[in-house]
Design brief:
With 497 residues, the protein is an all-alpha fold. It has helices at 4-12, 16-35, 40-47, 51-79, 81-100, 105-133, 136-167, 176-179, 181-195, 209-228, 236-261, 276-306, 311-317, 319-339, 342-365, 375-389, 392-397, 405-435, 443-455, 457-466, 486-492; strands at 198-200, 494-496. It has a two-stranded antiparallel ribbon with strand order 1-2.
């Protein structure tokens, strides 16, 4: 175990290898939610699955990921973020192999649920490790890289999946979208112990099992109806589940406050939400992903079902958005140095303009006009996304105590996944209500245009929420994750190299 002085010197000259390793691990975890979208038709044909069964391939992963993130984050606080990253990645790699070699649809569904739970264990540790290992300007750059990774995992999922299926490596067809995780996972598993410090902050603390159970059930009561309700025509069970979620969350909050009052170890420290930057940050994150999740889905439906494009072709159109996102991510730090958190507001405003532009153009070109006319709108939206995604995680985590970094990251990731699910459900009511049960082709542009009117409201709300964020540097010394000095830092986090 290194001394606090050695750890401090290491923080001043951080190794970027650790960041690269954990970001790749996080990338494949988030990518797997999006990459399987393009494989659904092939899975349905190859395994003889029904549409509801293939839908569970997506829902099983998304629900397990969202439900498990908070518990996975807390386990990182207790057992160490590197240890939980390794455990989650090992299970994720094994589950990916099971998905890739699945002999039946239900085997695949179960494997996807396990894969989602594994992702919930490893994903929160990425931001937690960044918070512990990097300080000052280095941490700002690391947070920006995290935001870049997160955005690219969503933007590139459909393209990567389409390319893998088109290549049809060794005749494996759709199975390659899962099997590709095996060599990547094995390499990251080998490199992690050599590059990432083993940070311990809460030795002797036990996991709040009652809180974990309540959090999982409460989130499931919300997420499952949001993911499955529309597909099943909003049956009674979906509404009953959403209603039941209210007292379940109330019970969870009461339980957490009771443990905190007794100086016990709750699953989620209520003190996290007394930090204004964290509360405003996760709210902005939640609302931002309501727009991102719904836009991605509905634009893909418009292109594929309305215009008859292949998944790979429509995915390649997203590269325009990716180019804007990638470019602005490198500028976000320079712009933030001049205007602070207003860079997030600027980015959200550009996202709204970009989405609105795409909506207007779609209304004009319908299903016959040249689809390339939407490229400028996608480029502007992507540029705005980069200005939001790079600094927003850092702004939310700025005042979080290091010993709660994994928990805070789990809450942040849950806000992301939950926001995407809620956005799809709310905007889906407009879109699918407009096209009806037997849609004509000309119904798709109208439904998309009307949906954009709702989607644009979300980034506008983000611009307003940003005004409530604390100014950069206003956090009291010693409270920001990774910025505690001297003996206190040595007592709180000691990297084991």
């Amino acid at each position: 175990m290194t001394s606090p002085q050695t750890a401090a010197r290491a923080a001043d000259r951080p190794s970027w290898a650790a960041l690269a390793v954990v970001l790749i691990g996080g990338f494949i975890a988030f990518l797997d939610f999006f990459i399987a979208n393009v494989a659904i038709p092939s899975i349905q044909s190859d395994l003889g699955a029904s549409p509801p069964e293939t839908q569970l391939v997506m829902v099983g992963y998304g629900a397990a990921l969202c439900v498990g993130l908070i518990t996975g984050g807390r386990m990182g606080d207790i057992y160490g973020p590197r240890r939980m990253f390794l455990v989650g990645l090992a299970l994720f790699t094994v589950a990916s192999a099971a998905c890739g070699f699945a002999p039946s649809i239900w085997f695949l569904i179960v494997a996807r649920v396990i894969q989602g739970l594994a992702a919930a264990m490893l994903a929160p540790q990425v931001l937690a490790i960044v918070s512990h290992v990097y300080t000052g300007e280095a941490r700002g750059r690391a947070f920006s890289a995290y935001g870049l990774m997160l955005g690219l995992s969503g933007l590139c999922g459909q393209v990567i999946g389409g390319v893998l299926i088109a290549l049809d490596i060794a005749g494996l067809d759709w199975r390659t979208v899962f099997l590709i995780n095996i060599p990547i996972g094995l390499v990251i598993l080998a490199l992690t112990p050599r590059t990432v410090p083993d940070i311990r902050t809460q030795s002797g603390v036990r996991l709040d099992l009652a809180g974990a159970a309540l959090a999982s059930v409460s989130l499931a009561a919300v997420v499952l109806p949001l993911l499955e309700g529309r597909e099943q025509g909003w049956p009674l069970w979906a509404w009953l589940s959403l209603i039941a979620a209210v007292p379940l969350f109330a019970l969870l909050i009461t339980h957490q406050r009771r443990l905190a009052a007794k100086n016990a170890a709750p699953l989620i420290d209520p003190g996290l939400f007394r930090e204004r930057g964290f509360t405003v940050g996760i709210t902005a994150y939640f609302v931002y992903f309501m727009s991102m999740g719904s836009f991605f889905l509905l634009f893909a439906i418009y292109m594929q079902e309305g215009r008859g494009w292949e998944p790979l072709s429509s995915g390649l159109l997203f590269t325009t958005m990716s180019a804007g996102f990638f470019g602005s991510s490198f500028l976000a730090g320079r712009i933030a140095a001049r205007i602070g958190n207003q860079v997030i507001a600027l980015g959200a405003g550009l996202v709204a303009i970009g989405y609105g532009t795409v909506g207007v153009i779609v209304a004009q070109i319908g299903v016959e006009g040249t689809a390339g006319w939407v490229a400028p709108g996608l480029l502007v939206a992507g540029f705005g996304m980069g200005l939001v995604a790079a600094p927003l995680p850092g702004a939310a985590m700025a005042g979080v105590d290091p010993k709660h970094a994994s928990s805070a990251s789990g809450v942040l990731s849950t806000a992301m996944e939950g926001g995407a699910a809620l956005g799809v459900s709310l905007v889906g009511l407009v879109f699918f209500g407009t096209i009806g049960d037997s849609p004509a082709l000309d119904a798709y542009p109208k439904a998309f245009y009307l949906s954009i009117a709702v989607i644009v409201a979300f980034p506008v709300i983000v611009t307003l929420l940003v005004q409530a964020l604390p100014k950069p540097g206003s956090t009291a010394p010693g409270t920001a994750a990774g910025e505690v000095d001297g003996e206190e830092a040595g007592a709180m986090e000691q990297p084991v190299l």
